[in-house]
Design goal:
The complex is a heterodimer of chains A (104) and B (120).
Chain A (H helix, E strand, L loop, with lengths): L1 H27 L3 H11 L2 H29 L5 H25 L1
Chain B lengths: L11 H19 L1 H12 L4 H8 L2 H29 L3 H28 L3
Helix pairs in contact in B: 1-4, 4-5
Classes of the chains: A mainly alpha (104), B mainly alpha (120).
Chain lengths: 104, 120
């Protein structure tokens, strides 16, 4: 239940990150001045926050997506295993959020 | 005659489900790559010339195009399911899903135009 809702929430975050990614890519492959501007923005508080949010959302959506695919394929289908895998992925995401927060 | 509550045919459900999984597999392979590149640029490991070396070649453009296509299909299907779940009024639903499709297609075309225009 929580995993499914979080999958939707992280999905929406990732969709919203797409225009930002396009802007970043456009800027970084533009003139050297554009590149410096985008780098400066990325290293600002807002840039770091959004990069962190996108990273955490991507990590969770990726892991939980693989979990959904496995369940569809018939692996880990029992109630306990589904709960356990959801908890493992939530714990992994928390760890990844912490690590990414420290690294950025 | 029974009252029709939901628009659309029952046949389209499997196609949506299947496309959502197929695009998910493509994204699982391709999507981590741009994020890693973004982090490398952020960390200063890759400079602008390094970045252009990575993205500005035929294979990268092709992979980027496949990524965009899968991303738009996946995002469209995902948001469509959410709208269908949370928006009850049929008029709003059709309007939202329709405008989402138009915005996303426009976005995809713009994105591809940027990618294939690199290097002149």
């Amino acid at each position: 239940m929580i995993a499914s809702l979080a999958h939707r929430a992280s999905g929406v975050v990732l969709v919203l990150f797409v225009p930002l990614y396009l802007w970043l890519l456009h800027g970084m492959t533009g003139s050297p001045d554009n590149f410096i501007q985008v780098q400066a923005w990325l290293h600002s508080g807002l840039g770091k926050l959004l990069l962190w949010l996108a990273g955490v959302a991507l990590f969770f959506h990726f892991c939980n997506g693989l979990r959904f695919l496995s369940i569809d394929a018939g692996w880990f289908e029992s109630r306990q295993l589904m709960r356990l895998s959801a908890r493992i992925i939530l714990a992994m995401t928390l760890l990844a959020a912490l690590l990414l927060g420290l690294l950025l | 005659m029974r009252l029709v509550k939901e628009p659309g045919s029952a046949r389209s459900g499997f196609k949506d489900w299947y496309l959502q999984r197929l695009s998910a597999v493509v994204l699982a392979v391709l999507l981590p790559m741009p994020f890693v590149v973004l982090i490398l640029v952020y960390a200063g490991v890759v400079d602008q010339f390094g970045l252009l070396d990575i993205v500005d070649n035929f294979v990268s453009r092709l992979l980027h195009t496949i990524l965009i296509t899968a991303l738009i299909i996946h995002a469209y299907m995902g948001l469509k399911v959410m709208i269908e779940d949370y928006v009850a009024a049929i008029g709003w639903r059709v309007t939202l899903i329709g405008s989402m499709l138009v915005v996303m297609s426009g976005f995809g075309i713009w994105w591809m135009a940027i990618i294939w225009a690199w290097g002149g």
